[in-house]
Amino acid sequence: MINPTSGIGATTQTSATTSSKNTAAESQDRFLKLLVTQMKNQDPLNPMDNAQVTSQMAQLSTVSGIDKLNATLQALSSSMVASQSMQAASMIGHVVMVPGNRMDLVNGKAVGALDLTQPADSVSVAITDGAGNVVRNMQLGSQNAGSVALQWDGLNDMGQQLADGNYKFNATAVLGGVKSTASTMSYGLVNSVMQGTQGATLNVGQLGEVSFASVKQIL
User: Fold this and answer.
1) Are residues 188 and 204 in contact, defined by beta-carbon separation less than 8 angstroms?
2) Where are the alpha helices (DSSP H) in the chain?
3) pTM
4) Residue 138: pLDDT over 90
5) Of 41, 61, 89, which one is at a domain's C-terminal end?
């Protein structure tokens, strides 16, 4: 079956290409007319030399080259956006790791991660409940730069099992006695993908909307 809309994109692209070519041709035509007029009306006692003519022709060539470069960059940008959309769509139904501080405790298990920009002599993690109370402090010891996996068994500092639900966490890294806040990462399921002016955006459940570029890992 023939798709009645299948030719729209091609027609639009052809029209845009034709319009671009016409614009470039019109610019060159105007430039040449101005140059010829200038030469016709030049001072006979002080005519334009070859260097001046060559310089103005070079300007025309430069302008034409810039127009072609802009058209090429626009086509490349459109191609990259389409490619990104296809890649993002393939993530639907997959778990991704993105910036966030949420941990979902399910059946006594919760996972998260840290993103360290530099090594650390020691790393500590504080997990808080819905009321903002710290329920567990974890010491991860020294860590190398990069991604650090975090697993929590749902026990508080007293060794008691906490109820399943939503918790949050933050981390502190120490290097040479200097403390810094470590970036926290959360895991979530990609439910849908949206395409906007800034690129593809993923809907990652309760983590909300995150940009395609912010995805650190796909499971």
Assistant:
1) yes
2) 6-40, 50-89
3) 0.60
4) yes
5) 89
